[in-house]
Amino acid sequence: MTEEDIKPWGRLSTLLLGVSAMLAGQLIALVALTWWYGRDLTQLPDFSGDGVAVSLIILVSTPFQIALLALFALRRSPSAADYLGLVMPRKSDVMFGVVAVIALIVVANTVSWLLGRPIITPFQTEIYRTADTAAAMALLWFAVVIGAPAGEEVLFRGFLFRGWLRQPRNAWPVIVVTALLFALLHVQYDTFVMAQIFLFGLLLGFMRWASGSTILTLLLHALINLEGMIETWISFNV
After folding, report:
1. Cα separations (Å) of 214 from 74, 123, 149, 197?
2. Element (H, E) at 199
3. Which tens digit of pLDDT belongs to each residue from 19-68?
């Protein structure tokens, strides 16, 4: 199959379909939470810092979101994987991406330290603290390191990127816009942390454009989240 076989959705359609897939996944996750807590939607507690609830939301919403995006992709391409950029990256791109991510993590942590800001955010601390059983902790690690990167990368660097990048000269505007939306999605953090997430989004977008692989950005995103979870584990155990 060639790039000519892929006929992306229009820019507005791409945005609306992407948002629809995300909201549908979140709605299904909320239904799952009502079952978990044994309450209706109006009686659900505040679960923004609940490690178990956060894990359930991610692990329930992500498969449905990805499935919907794959179905939308199949309407415009013989292969959903090719449409979403789910192709294996080159080893050289992986090596460059890993080094770039590590360097950006070091810079971000150093700036936080110099400004007297905590490297571990309150949200990270709270979801880790409330995952108070071995099973809940394992679920949280899987959701944060695997589930969240999969859902976010297929949406931002997969579906949206494909629909918006029409010509090489559009690359940086698309990288910037997807990074901005990616950062704004993380409303659980303050402006400073969201700015850092925006920078990571720029790097992930660049790697998607340079490599053509959403699998690569998923792996790099997983590495970023893994580092954050390790930092949180250290803060609780050292």
Report:
1. 17, 27, 11, 18
2. helix 191-211
3. 999 999 999 998 888 887 776 666 565 667 788 889 999 999 999 999 99
Residue 218: how many other CB atoms lie within 10 Å: 24
Q: Could you read off the pLDDT of 102-157 as tens digits, one per residue?
A: 999 999 999 999 999 999 999 999 999 999 899 999 999 999 999 999 999 999 99
What is the value of pTM for the model shown?
A: 0.94
DSSP assigned state of 6 = -
Helix H, strand E, coil C: the string for 78-99 is CCHHHHCCCCCCCHHHHHHHHH
Q: Supply 166's token pair.
A: 């029409």
Structural contact between residues 8 and 74, judged by C-beta atoms closer than 8 angstroms? no
Q: What are phi and psi for residue 191, nearest 5 degrees?
A: -60, -40
Structure-token pair, residue 199:
């920078």
- Alpha helix stretches (DSSP H) within 38-170: 51-74, 80-83, 91-114, 122-130, 134-142, 148-153, 161-164
The span from the CA of 100 to the CA of 72, in Å, is 32
